[in-house]
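Researcher: For the annotation table, I need structure tokens for HTH iclR-type domain-containing protein. Please keep the output clean. Sequence:
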Amino acid sequence: MTETWDSAGHIASSRYRLAVCRYLSEHGSGLPSRIAAETDLAQPHVSRALSELRERGIVELLVPESQQKGRLYGLTDLGELAYERVALDREADVTVVEAGEFPAPEMSSELQNAYGDALRAIAWCEPLQTRIRFFERSLLDRYDEDTVKTLVATLTNEEAIDQPLEDLPIGGPELVAFAIDDVLIVRVPLDDGVKLLVSLDAAIDVTLSDLRDSCRQMTAAVLDS
């Protein structure tokens, strides 16, 4: 079932892929031009999203490959399961904050010092509220509020992964890393139901257990208070 989760993460990490899958889920199938018109997206964005989703087996072409006009697309069985997973996880209350508003500002500064430009964002995820700080300002344009909400909710929902974490290539019962596009996201469970998401450039060479231990040490005072 990790394939379903991986596909859900792929959908959730792009507002274009999310919009296309939402349209196909609601309408059953769609032409690129119709999807673009009814979602208010530029057709090149829709075409690229369909191509990316098709490469991952999330959508499929419903007409012969040789047909150049009327290229109708629909969700695959995997795509339907993955989008259902995403749709169930879209109720998170997510707030974008600046440095001083983050619950653990010292940790935020230490991570920035440790990982520099490779650090993209951190999210402090409580059961009813998530606060996220972006270090790469372009991400605010790349990910709109709805996409951020969907992605955070999907990443923090442990029910989305029903395979034991210790059996995954990366991670363990208390730590798991997700690779989505060019981003490495590490989920660090803290105390009192708090989960920390640390987003890094996927090319960075980092020891995940060291990152986990550092985050726990730096947030201990915050959690105790």
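Researcher: And a one-line annotation?
Model: The first strand starts at residue 59 and ends at 61.
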